[in-house]
Amino acid sequence: MSxxxxxxAFAAPEMIPQAAWDAASNAGPPASADFEIPLKDGGTFKMVxxxxxxxxxxxxxxxxxxxxxxxxxLAVWAKSHTDVPVIAVNxxxxxxxxxxxxxxxxxxxxxxxxxxxxxxxxxxxxxxxxMFLFDRTGAxxxxxxxxxxxxxxxELDAALAGGK
Amino acid sequence: MKSVRDVALWLLFPLMLFGMFVGxxxxxxxxxxxxxxxxxxxxxxxxxxxxxxxxxxxxxAYSEVLGVPIATLAIPFYATVLLLAAxxxxxxSGARPLIVGAGVLAxxxxxxxxxxxxxxxxxxCAWCIRLYGVNAAVLxxxxxxxxxxxxxxxVLLTAAGAYIGLLLLSAGGEHVYxxxxxGPGGSTAIxxxxxxxxxxxxxAPTLSFTVRTEDSHDATLQLDADDAWTGNKNSKVAVVMFxxxxxxxxxxxxxxxxxxxxxxxxRVLFVFKHFPMxxxxxxxxxxxxxxxxxxxxxxxxxxxxxxxxxAFHDLAYKNQHQLGVDSLRTYALxxxxxxxxxxxxxxNDAPREVVLHDAAAGTSLDxxxxxxxxxxxxxxRSGTSAEVMARAIEVALGASEQEASAKxxxxxxxxxxxxxVPADAPAxxxxxxxxxxxxxxxxxxxxADGKAVSAKHMVPAxxxxxxxxxxxxxxxxxxxxxEEEWVTACQGARAVDDNKNGQFADDMIEGxxxxxxxxxxxxxxxxxxxxSKTGSSPFRPVYTGELPGCVTxxxxxxxxxxxxxxxxxxxxxxxxxxxAFDTSEDHAxxxxxxxxxxxxxxxxxxxxxxxxx
Lengths: 164, 613
Description:
Structural class of chain A: alpha/beta
Oligomer: heterodimer
CATH class of chain A: Alpha Beta
Distance between the termini of chain A: 60 Å
Shape of chain A: globular
CATH topology of the largest domain in chain B: Glutaredoxin
Largest sheet of chain B: 5 strands, mixed
Number of domains of chain B: 3
Shape of chain B: globular
Low-confidence stretches of chain A: 1-10
Mean pLDDT of chain B: 88
Number of strands of chain B: 19
Number of domains of chain A: 1
Largest sheet of chain A: 5 strands, mixed
Mean pLDDT of chain A: 86
């Protein structure tokens, strides 16, 4: 039996070093972003225009179930946080899918389309939805993936309260 | 008078002995079915039905852990609980809470296995259910025996030591027993089965065989003139499969039969009879387990009408993930059938009648599930390897038992060739298929100074966007592969955009489903290593060229599994292909297409390889 286990161990393919995998897995987004993206309704969202304010950036897709719940909740949340700019970046490859979803829900916050996933890639996002919070200096201070109806946006509130 | 707590401990004795017996019984069943030369048939105490099948569950990919049958692991577990009960009765009260802990662990593991059985396999195993009951009893009796006692370190160490010792003993014994079996091994390696062309001319011979049915009745297996057949129609040895074109186990068995046909096609008759697991065309089943099975069966009858049953059969199994009516028509036409005649056939009720007739024949043999394979009337179930059936065929053809074993073993050896990855393998390989010529990196790309490199034993590029991949290929004087090229290299045949949507990995498979063949083989490629549910997966990608078996006929390595690979000649066509190390075996295929996100997407497991003209 021992010989069998030993043989199995030697026959196993060699995985890459853990450090190499960790580096690929944990590559983070830029600590402070000079973030600019054209908005779907015209104009450009620029992070520099909001210096001095906390800013929420969320990536979403129309095919993502949790995103479809997060967006309406975020719209409600924003009404009581008018001093916090929110930008919702859609990553559908076909922007018409996003437009179709938006036409059915109440969401009046700025939306940008990122069909090429350039901003998605820049921020290292691999799961939907993923939300970022930037502090008043423009530095990234909080990242969160997923949306649960029970917790809602309470974690965002906590991050906001702890922010500068 | 004994206390209730002690009675609970005494009750564990017969229960644990029963558990050890079941572990032994299931180990024997597992080994003889997979590694023996003569499958034992239906396991006693496990009558098969639409929900119950011990053969499938106890020989599935989930039935072993590190090469040891799960059933074998149960034996030292129950023996250890028995030891704990004995220690508790001899005054070591610290053993009592450990029994509770063992019960919790066992019951939790039972839940996991039950979930796998129901969701992944579609069947449960009656003996497993009994063991789940035993595990629940361990917990209940443990609680009665006294969970409040303080665990003793000494007892814990004794139990752990006993378990490890007994585990090594059981696993070692199992391997010795396995090695003692006459069978050539449990490999389901796929040999060089040949694709079918036009069906042979003429009706099937109307042979009949006496059969002892699954419910122990005597019955007759009658071949009909309109049965789909191939091989030697004058042979007195017939291999008859009752199958369902939507059944995954049938697909696997059909691969084994294809290997047999490649070896015995000139001496043995092969027949396919329909037994779709769908009451719409099979009065013998109640549950609509396979929604497309009737349409697929009828389509095969219509393909047969034009002489293309076997070619259709091959395409249907190869493309089993897509059996909608439009896809079935595509396969029939690809097999060679005329579209108008096919449509006319499908629009009337005659093909359904053919299927109903076959299914009724299966029901008369007490068939409850598929596949069922009869060799001259002797039944072989799901999971039986070609080598095991080859031995039966050799005996039926007149070979002695010894000769038959030797020939079957030789067949096993020829089906399992995987040579080491050459140290001096060229960086690129030429691929030429039906007018499409290009070269492709032999290995997944790694990067050095921004340039793509194709070499063995490198860390593959990860967290690459399509833009990164394109740039690295161009820096190396190459370009990213197009989807057509990548799929062509992987499947070994020119990819065709059947539905003209500009995508080549989303429709009919023209070549093989995996780089090495049509059916998934464990340990060929670095795939299906998804342990994410545990929260801390021990798996990650491997170095390039680590798996000698994960190779195409042209010598290209690791196209499926390890890291997903970007392909596409423009951002609009950017797509990740082949799946990664944590992609399931059903998805880490040549036609695995991931275009969820745009070209800027860069996941940890996103890599690429380059092509050139």
